[in-house]
Amino acid sequence: MRVLGIESSCDESAVAVLDDREGLLAHRLFSQTELHATYGGVVPELASRDHVRKLLPLLKETLQEAASAAADIGGIAYTAGPGLAGALLTGAALGRSLAYAWGVPAVAVHHLEGHLFAPFLERPAPRLPFLALLVSGGHTMLIEVAALGEYRLLGESLDDAAGEAFDKTAKLLGLSYPGGAPLSQLAERGRTGVIRLPRPMLDRADLDFSFSGLKTAAMLAIRDRALDEQARADLALAFETAIVDTLVVKTERALEATGLRTLVIAGGVGANRSLRERLRLLADTRGVALYFPRVEFCTDNAAMIAAAGLWRLKAGQRDPLPIEIHARWPLGELLAPDGARSGQAH
Ligand code: KG4
Ligand code: ZN
Q1: N vs C: which end of the chain shows fewer Cβ within 10 Å?
Q2: Which of 28, 18, 99 is nearest to 59 (CA)?
Q3: Which of 11, 115, 166, when mutated, tests ligand 1's pocket best, judged by the most ligand atoms within 8 Å of its CB?
Q4: Could you say which of 3.90.550.10, 3.30.420.40, 1.10.260.40, 3.30.1330.10 is the CATH number of the domain covering 2-118+297-333?
């Protein structure tokens, strides 16, 4: 089966073609980062308008690169939520219309399920069940993934998501939006131990996170110092280390609590080099198999939506024609399609 994936939940317009035997045939992405940069965050109306402009050209290019015609596409997967309602509608409308015109099934994919299944774009692919650390701009979660649609939330952020904390602190440091990657780059020139920030929630036995206090501590540290270039780098390193320490400790506790032997890192913050290195160390020490998608599939993309959609289509899921999107869509409300346990999709 060959699936067309469409992602438009926030500020990335993306299209991909994934084949269950041949793998990923093509993927294209346009990031609206520059469009929103002057506002310091995503402006929903501008995002929707730009998706309308970009999705069709991206679709054309992707089909061309995949050397696929409409007749080769056996199903369509589009992000139906969570995300910005207007932005979601653009991709959903395109996906549903193509499915109708081409006479193929379409499935509405949960954006976070896309992130969770992104590692299946790589070889070797992880085996179910696994523990997922899902860290993005909107979410910080530890999830036990038993099967497609069978998720147990073990812990999550009670306030800011890890990516959100990165972005806000980066802004205070005068870095561009989204700030996770530039902050991490700045941290490379920082000196260890010069500034120390708190590791929130480590004294609590549960698996929840909280990053707003850390963000405030960083803000006070910035306010109390004359910020020359070295001090900015020192602070960036202190902040990154505090977040990574917290994520690693809670991930280790989740591995202990569940006894799971496979760990998957997903979401935009999963692109962070320091986090990857520290989790690699943790996995090696505990004899746990570690999987993460390549950096470009950690952040939002359509290949991961096609990957999750392919599993659902192969499990027999067929969604009704009316376009449905869910701006809010708790992962726990997702259901496993009948037959999802019958085997791996590819
Ligand atoms: O998954 P994603 O692309 O979008 C959401 O679904 O939220 O994640 C975006 C988040 C942003 O907050 C961005 O700053 C962060 O991922 N991010 C990083 C890195 N690359 C992206 N955070 C830390 N280090 C990075 N290298
Ligand atoms: Zn995302």
Answers
A1: N
A2: 28
A3: 166
A4: 3.30.420.40
Which residue is listed with tokens 């993460």? Answer: 292
Count Cα neighbours of 9 within 13 Å in the Cβ-side half-sphere.
29
> Domains of the chain: which residue ranges?
2-118+297-333, 127-292
Cα-based distances in Å from 173 to 169, 215, 254 = 6, 12, 33
2-118+297-333 matches 127-292 in fold? yes
Pocket of ligand 1, beta carbon within 6 A = 136-138, 163, 166-167, 178-181, 184, 267-269, 271-272, 299-300
- Which helix (H) or strand (E) segment holds residue 52: the answer is helix 44-65
152-199 per-position pLDDT tens digit: 999 999 999 999 999 999 999 999 888 999 999 999 999 999 999 999
